[in-house]
Write a structure and sequence with these properties.
Layout (H helix, E strand, L loop, with lengths): L10 H10 L2 E4 L34 H4 L6 E6 L2 E8 L4 E2 L13 E10 H4 L24 H10 L6 H7 L8
Antiparallel strand pairs: 1-5, 2-3, 3-5, 4-5
Length: 174
């Protein structure tokens, strides 16, 4: 998932602020920046899926399919940025709060945030993983994202040397 409001030049800043605030989230609208009130779709648990913008209907999975304890791989510019664990249910707040790291109305609390740069410290060796949207539930165990999450979770968060040994190419699965 990505955590910036359609402003790629501020993607890292928005992502860091959101994760530091302990939240991940999304919103609707096509204009860059925080979603305008006029584009607000309301609570995803109450709105009819057909009332959502056609190209953003899959965002509903954020409210309906994600569960506490699920792991979320956060991307910035098609590179893994962080891995976090969902620590609460879906929330909808019609008031955004950019100063607190939450520019979105639809959010979930997270914990156990792990940063990719702490996992693999040489960015020249990072594998680019192309994202096709803001959020996509992982259902294919052979996908690069799925395998990365599994590999990342196999090593305790403070075991950097173990991570370095296990951070082989994300090429073809074994």
């Amino acid at each position: 998932m990505q955590l910036h409001p359609g402003v790629p030049s501020e993607a890292v800043r928005h992502t860091v602020l959101s994760l530091a605030a302990g939240v991940i989230g999304l919103d609707f609208g096509s204009a860059p920046g925080p979603t305008r009130a006029a584009d607000d779709v309301g609570d995803l648990l109450r709105v009819a899926p057909t009332a959502l913008p056609r190209k953003q209907r899959h965002y509903r999975a954020f409210a309906t399919e994600m569960s506490e304890g699920d792991h979320v791989l956060v991307f910035v510019h098609h590179f893994p940025f962080a891995l976090c664990k969902v620590a609460g249910g879906y929330n909808y707040d019609p008031e955004i709060s950019p100063e607190s790291g939450r520019w979105f109305r639809h959010f979930r609390h997270v914990d156990d945030v792990r940063f990719y740069a702490d996992r693999d410290m040489d960015p020249r060796k990072w594998n680019r993983i192309t994202m096709n949207g803001t959020i996509a539930p992982l259902r294919t165990p052979s996908s690069k994202s799925y395998r990365l999450i599994q590999r990342w979770l196999a090593v305790p968060p403070n075991n950097v040397s173990g991570l370095l040994r296990s951070s082989e190419s994300l090429g073809t699965p074994p």
